[in-house]
Amino acid sequence: MQLLSSNVNLDSFFDNLSQAQERILLLDYDGTLAPFHVERDKAFPYPGVKELLDEICQTQTTQLIIISGRAIKDLIPLLNLNPLPEIFGSHGWEHLTNKGKYTLELSDSHLEKVLAQARQHIEELGLTGLLEQKPVSLAIHWRGKDTETINFIQSQVRRVWENLESIENLELHDFDGGLELRVTGKDKGTAVESIISNLDSRETPMIAYLGDDNTDEDAFKFLKDKGLSVLVREHLRPTNADLWIKPPEELLQFLGKWKMACLDK
Q: Is 116 found in the same domain as 52?
């Protein structure tokens, strides 16, 4: 574990966590709890992660929330947690409460047509097998492909999607292993903001957010001075996070420390 902020003392954080009245653990999925996998429906958590999450939930002292770019329906079988925690999917556009209530905040027939147009372009290029359809976005994945294929995808897809981005309420986002065209207005930072704004407690909660790629930076930025931001990846990159940990060993250590803090109270 490597501290990236001089304002953070990790020992003090976990000491305060053990005394906290309210604890909130916010977790990205792909690249954070689970290694990337070319076959995305096989991207299961690192060994030991599910068990630790179950144990943290069983303490009934932590609000555990998953915040992912994936669609919620694709996350549920991978998480395999019972009961399911609260989940924000599709970068915050989808929400599933821990009571099972599901909401999708966007319903725009025009944008649906534009996304259908973007999908049609992918189909014409013969790249449908690399496409991920989400409720409010499209993502093209090139993980595991050779350089020539990646360059082809980059040039052909980016050109058309950038044109759609310039005339519609859409944004193009690079992520680790692909490109995503999604509706503007929500991101992982706004998801964290909504969680904090809806807290009932008068006590200051202890919060940590764990994420790995550029889409998590919105959450890191929002959490500045409000909680601990943790970058989870093999290699360090420029980031707004306070702490860098390498999965899976240091991820398991962090989750284990969180669990012990819950039990210390």
A: no
Output b/e per residue, 111-121; b: 16+ Cβ within 10 A.
beebbeebeeb
* CB count in 10 Å sphere of residue 155: 9
CATH of the domain at 173: 3.30.70.3080
Token reading at 150: 């990646």
* Cα 211 from Cα 22, distance rounded (Å): 21
- CA–CA dist 175, 152 (Å, integer): 17
Q: Are strands 170-175 and 178-183 parallel, antiparallel or unpaired?
A: antiparallel
Chain segment 149-181, per-residue pLDDT in tens: 899 988 888 888 888 877 678 889 888 889 999
Q: Which residues pair with 209 in a beta bridge?
A: 26, 229
Q: Quick one: 94 and 17 in the same domain?
A: yes
Q: How far apart are CA 56 and CA 262, in angstroms?
A: 7
